[in-house]
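Entry 14. Structure prediction run on the chain below.
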Amino acid sequence: MATVLLFAVVAVVLPGPAQGGAWRAGDRVFFAGVGVAMALLLWRFASIRAVPTRESLTIRNLFLTRTVSWREVVDVRFGEGDPWVTIELSDTDTLAVMAIQKADAGFGRAEAGRLAALVQALGPSVPSPDVTPG
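Output returned:
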């Protein structure tokens, strides 16, 4: 909301041709639209999460949200070069879990271990070679 407000205020106060500037109405609308787009992107980025329930895991990444049952998850990977956790699904698909990131250091590793423990407890009984429950 603050981003939209900031861009709207700047779009209004930009000097137009009457004030000796070069900003026209179309430029102002475009500038305000950039603010709205930035606010939407920041809102999506702030709402990235992984929500486990007893039956499934709902993963909300930057652009997509997907719910998978625990039986579909066969592995949890958090390799050295990976920026976030990746889960391997029974249909050979992989799904990024952007909510658990390498940038979070120890907290990220702890959350990856917790996710691996949930998969081990609620999913297929295949131990993860990449992440140990912690």
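The CA atoms of residues 46 and 121 lie 29 Å apart.
Filed with the rest of this week's runs.
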